[in-house]
Amino acid sequence: MIDRHAKGPLPAAAEPSALSLNGISRHFGQVSALSNVSLRVNRGTVHAVLGENGAGKTTLMRVAFGLVKPNAGSIEVRGRTVRLSSPADALQSGIGMVHQHFTLVPAMTVAENVALGGRGLYSAQQWADKVRAIGDRTGLVLDPTARVADLPVSAQQRCEIVKALARDVDVLILDEPTAVLAPDEAQDLLRWMRSYANDGHALVLITHKLRDAIATATDITVLRLGKSVFSGAAGTTNEDELAAAMLGTGLAQPQPASNSHTTGPAPGGKRPAGGADAREPVLSARGVSVRDALGVARLSNVTLNVYPGEIVGVAAVEGAGQRELLRLVSGRLQPTTGQVTLPAHVGFVPEDRQNDALMLDAPLVENIALRGAGARTGRMPWSDFQHATSEIISQYAVKAAGAKVDARTLSGGNQQKLIVGRELANQPPALIVENPTRGLDFRATQAVHTAVRAARDAGTAVVLYSSDLDEVLSLADRVVVMHSGQLVEVPGDRIAIGRAMLGS
Amino acid sequence: MLATSDNTTSARWQQVARALLRALALAGLALVLLVLLLTLTGQRTGDALRALVNGAGGSWYAMTSVTLVRAIPLALAGLSVSLAFRAGILNIGVEGQLLAGAAAATFAALAAPTLGAAAVPLILMVGALAGAFWAGIAALLRRKFGVLEVISTIMLNYVALHTVGYLVRGPLQEPTRVYPQSFTIDARAQLPVLIPGTRLHWGLVIALVLAFALWWWLRDRAAGFRLRAVGLNARAAFSAGRIDVDRTTMGAFLVSGAIAGVAGATELTGVTYSLYENFSPGYGYTAIAVALLARLHPLSVLVTALLFGALEAGASAMQRDAGVPSVLVQVVEALLILLVLSNEWWQTRHRRLGEAGT
Amino acid sequence: MIDALLEATIRWATPFALAALGECVSERAGVINIGLEGSIIAGALGATVAAGLFGPTAGFAVGAVSGLAVALCFALFAVVMRADQIITGTAITMFALGLTGTLYRVIYGASGVSLTTPTTAAVAIPGLSAIPFVGRALFAQPPITYVLYGLIGLVAWWLARTQSGLALRAVGERPEAAAAAGISPVRVQFAAVLFAGAMAGLAGGTLVLAQAGTFVEQMSAGRGFIAIAIVVLGRWRPLGVAAASLLFGAAYTVQNLFQSLGLSEVPYNLFLAVPYVLTLVVLAAARGAASAPASLGRRQIESH
After folding, report:
1. Which residues contact C153 (CB under 8 A, 6 or more apart)?
2. How far apart are CA A69 and CA A55, in angstroms?
3. Same domain for A236 and A367?
4. Same domain, A374 and A420
5. Once rounded to an integer, what is the mean pLDDT over residues A430-455?
6. Under CATH, what is the fold of the domain C2-120+137-285?
7. Which of A186, B19, B161, C116 is the most exposed place for a label (fewest CB within 10 A)?
8. Structure pTM?
9. Distances from the Cα of B61 to the Cαs of B280, B308, B313, in angstroms?
10. Contact call for B232 and A359, based on CB within 8 A
11. To the nearest whole angstrom, how far is the Cα of C231 from the nearest Cα of chain A?
């Protein structure tokens, strides 16, 4: 394991750093989430905090924003020690946060969202002027009277940032800001961050994307298993070294097609399109349009054929219709017009596993029994379900105290493995997966990817969507792009796909 | 890791033992609360308690003809509530569905002389249909118009109440046209007595059979599993289970109403033999407490219904013999629900404290 | 004749509007308070006792406090302990109905001695009450109605034009956003529920001190639940809620009209059912929760 500290000179403390986290430790019960982590963010710099899911980035961020109190360590803003017991304290102390899952009120306007949290009276006019002023100053332009729900995702993120900037912050922390953006939009944001830092501000970029960190950051800190395993200037290191630090492997052999840190699709990850043998498609949508309850078109004239033994990757920015597409081809949504042909059973792994895939307060056995419950008649063969559950637990290495424990007791990764195991049991003809590794740590991610590939190899037709384009590219045999409800197949070039995601 | 049959049996006995202990704990708690309330409101606590215990179980008559008799409608209504709640439907309208069942049964009793041996079962069936119909109104409003069933069922309770008030002064009124109550139903329309010399009627058997049937059905049948799944997580039931949530909830709502209708019909044919203004002393609302305290489990409902039957039997005696307002018991019932809620909250504390992101 | 009907409508509508206005605030903060009925009946009894001893103004004040006390119990379970709002509310209502019944009998005797309290007379506002048609209806009412007018304006202004009103609306729409902005959703919801309780207590006081002149067990007769329907009909806006209350005030006016006309062919009992049927019709027509606050009734505040 490579362990480095302060390689290369960090800016000396001529002036107090904008934000300084010193020796932060935090444990939850037996689990140590953070051990003696230190971070110094100077004015005029972008400091990237790199790490896998589960490395401690989120906990560190929550400490900095007053959501969680450290068991040990201190926090200084511009040299003053601060005690944070709530987000209100953090805001007061000059720490601004741009959250990963937007903390905007969809039904309210931009001005109202930016104003939220102030004191005294609220004047829509005053705040509209303020929003425009910030737009002029920083280049983050927004219409203050627009409803947030009507804005595209990139604009919503701009609103998040403006919200933080409206508070005169000393340091701005951005948590996985590029996760929901198309490649071009992500580049725009990173460029903005760099120029904003050059104007003399301090920014923290929390990310798991190596390339973003190296391209944008002045300084980089790598977290792994709650410890800081690297801390130094960005110019003094490279991708391989950082990847090794993040993953804790020996010398950096980039993991083939298994993570999203390396550039582009990895060798061996692609297979020729499965339709060459003129087989019948397993899933077929022809000229499908879907309108939602309010009459808004979500899918427009979509045609898609998925053949046995292939993974079709869906690339899209949020809200482009991929949600509806996945539910359409898994039989969970009816088309308004057009035709869909599906097999009787289609496996479905939705992105919101707690709300859409599991009954948390029911035992694992009952969760397994859920599959096919809609069509079942007569008795519930509980002993069969017991067998099936035990098999899934052992085959997918699900860490659970038994088949009778409630699903709630499992960790996110184990819940996901259970769900994947359930949906893949008995070799279904088709499988649809939506953001299957969101929030999962490296090992669980690996396990899910392996299972999906194995299903493909066994002849299952797979449709996969991830908001992480690199994940899509590393798994898919061919890629289709969704934009504004329309679907188009794009030959596998990352740049072309990125452009198509934005509609060009 | 298979469960052997021995483990299953002993696990089941453990469950039963735990349930009984829980019931005892609840009964004890109820007594403690009662004593507290009695003392706080300046009642003669000793006399009141003695009256309560005597009224509930102090004699063979008290046990069979008061406590058990009062427990029967509570058990049936409690089963109705628990089935609906299990499916995620907040059916607060059992009171109205019960009245609908009783009213319809009164009408049906008019035909009793011509029905022979089938009279009573048919009357009960009519009651069930009426209860289902009454629940169906709320179910339809929920499905077609998105109306919260909590409010619609409560409104329907009031409508049912006033409709009964109208019926017993109008079409169903007793022959002398003096009192706001219906005619007395024909002897052939009456539920036979189970134990001679008591007022305990065959409704007890109906309640027991229904409880066991529901228990079996929920555990063993696919349709029962679907109902439970929808109640646990309707979204997952749809997405992962491909379950028709609308159909399942509609069915559960109607069956719940039907059982409540049976409760009303058995009370009419087994105890009161006529319909009148205050036919239900709030059975439908007490049933909510009965169901919640039984954690919506059909067999536990029998136990909590018995507990509440005893409480209410004792309450009447308390009012009669010690001058304590019987509504005090309603306070005890409500407090029990709140205590159960606090207990749930307490149990899940460790989960909240242990929760963290990484 | 018309202005007499209008006057009666507003008089009957006042307790509905008070309770519904309070519930409106509570629901805008994301909490649906089924225990509102309990606050009303508690307010009614509190007002009766206090007015008997200290006069009507004290009656209203104590009524508000009694309603608030019941709401406090509800808030403890539903807001702080995040228990299910519907079940908690039902339990609280049962509790309040039982307790008021008990206390009433304990205080005033088991036989329900006919007790009367002083009621507040209508006070005509000079000038305004002279406007034709609506003058007397709007401005010759008991003082509590004028308090209502003021409260409607106050709540409407507060929701739209203050940071705290903005914060409350945010909590009802997306509590995570409010939390990230430094607001405590639990505190906001707690305060909102207490406000609703106080308003419902005032409504109960109105029933006694401006209408019946006495306390009767269960006299709230479902108004707390109807208030919830009024909030839906009024689209969760203070002015809309006030207008929707008029509808129910009219229903009661019509009911009393028929009663006083002595139309014995039309069954009196069925007339009693009219407001409840009206509620069902209104709810169906308003098509449920189209513009409800997005997080209404939600138990969990953290996003995961």
Report:
1. none
2. 18
3. no
4. yes
5. 92
6. ABC transporter involved in vitamin B12 uptake, BtuC (1.10.3470)
7. C116
8. 0.85
9. 22, 17, 11
10. yes
11. 19
